[in-house]
Amino acid sequence: MHVGVQTNGDDVLRFVDGSIQAIHLLAAGEGEGQYSHEQRVALQKLVQHRKDLEKKLLSKAPLERSRSEDVTGLKQARSPSEEMPRRQSERRKAPPPPANVEVQQRHSANHAHAPPPPPSVSSNQVQSPSDMTEALPPPPDAATMEQLNHTLTESDRNYADPTPVNGQPASPTSNHTPSQHIPENNLPSPTGKTDASSSPTKTADLQELLKTVDLPEKIGPELLEEVRKSTGLSFDKSKVAVETVLGYVGFKVPALEGLMDRLLGSLHFGRDISDEDITSHDAKRMSVIFSELTACKDDSQQRSWALHEDEAIIKEYLQELLSILENAKPSICRKVVSRDNYEILHSLVQYYQMEMRGGLCLLLLKVFGAVCALEREVVLQLLYSVLPLELGQELQLHHEDVQRVCYIALVMTMIFSTGDNVSLAVSERFNQEFFLHILNLIENPPTEQFEDGAVDLLISFVLAFNLHLTSVDTNVVLRSLAAFGTPKVFTEHIMVLINRGDDPVKSFDFKPQPPNSVLKLFHDLYADLTTADLLYTNDAKVLMDVIVGRMTNLSPGDEVRSSFLALCQKVVQNSSYSEHCHRSRELQTILQAISVEEADTPDDQRIAMDILSKNPDIFSQG
């Protein structure tokens, strides 16, 4: 009895293997690698049923070996053909592929709801895979598949461990483990392709499933942080890299497009300063560097004499700080720098005052330039600190060091670029004597290298400082220009700037924006009679060419056109324009057109009519 039941279990196992192969052949032949719903359901049941059968057969193997000694006589009485099926089932894990005759017998057994008797298999009956494929019957049709599902359901319900317990057969459901549902997406495809990518329906289903995936709230900023930390790229470049990768994945894998869009959306989360910024890698490194630099400032030895042994360490700190300020997320830098009412910034200024080593001073100047780009408040903090006074003194003492002069002039241009009122100490320090020294460096550079590198930056500094001077009568820049005589190099440079429309002082986009520094200087020059004829005649004619061109090309209501119109009024009234009347006819035509234009520009119309009415001798000559 026991032997018969064991043989029945092997037969069911071989039957399941043959059915699985038949379904694969059917899908590969007719469905071109695509499985129908009925085939998937059948495969799920067959795969699970085969696992259950293997577990049951393997669990009985130790018991069979223990009982084999009691049934030795019975085994000797059996013929070799009867013994072979059981011996083979004990040695192998899976049966050989079914032969043609076996498949036909199993199909007939499906309709009879009973498994066929076990065949006797010998070594010379085993066929090659190609022969077996050719010998297999046509794959089962839909009716056969439905019958197969019914048979598998009945087999799942009726098959049980046949080992007797206390001399009684085991209950059909006593040791049966319910089959576990296998998702369709987990089934292998004969073509090796993922079904979700080849079927629009499956792609849509996967997209709906991915919509339910919960993403961490800060995954976007965290991903950017990891990319920047691992690659050393700037924050902006890291963001471009992440956006490119996520966008490309979403484009190439449509099923993941929705998820990639959600990840891209999370990149913009927390664009403003957030609590997470302060815990980032860049924030921690900035805090460490500032602490070390503060310790250097507070070191009693550093106050009296420089420890040259620590120069390499301080240099490394400053270089890392400069890299973070230039490449990290700006909100992180702003958050760290603004701690304790910008205490860190003022510590850096004090450290710069005490540092005497030229290499470290240059790095500190670069750091000051980098922090100025963070926000307007940082610029104002430096403007009202002792840094402008220190830098002004260095301009007078270290003008032979061209590189240092260039960095000092650049930082001072940034500090004075806002146009805010300066402190009394700055007004007293940057007096006429100071600007005469600057003009002398511009007009008579000590070296050719100085002329090539520092002159333009010094002119930019003069333009930036002039933004703070609102009164023509007390304008120290105008007094210095008038006292110097005819600063040829200075005037040539500013003529080039106004002709190009450039403003070298405009370094940031902070609000509110100051006026154009070049136009402001020309307004101030022609508002004062002592400097109205500072330009050479040819330069004055070029200036009138620029004014006529701007008023012709710019639209009514444009602030730049209004500014050039007001400058034209000062040039005509306060300078010696009447001596040459350069382009007076064209200027008269423009002024007449502005005075009667339909646009809502009452100020421009008033200025145009005022110029025409107060200078009839000039425009009547046209």
TrEMBL record:
Stored InterPro entries: SPIN90/Ldb17 (IPR030125), SPIN90/Ldb17_LRD (IPR018556)
A biological process term (GO) from this entry: endocytosis
Organism lineage string: Eukaryota, Metazoa, Spiralia, Lophotrochozoa, Mollusca
Skewed-composition ranges (Polar residues): 165-202
Protein name: SPIN90/Ldb17 leucine-rich domain-containing protein
Biased amino acid composition, Basic and acidic residues: 57-72, 80-93
Biased composition (Low complexity): 121-130
Annotated ranges, domain SPIN90/Ldb17 leucine-rich: 455-586
Residue span of region Disordered: 57-202
MF GO annotations: Arp2/3 complex binding
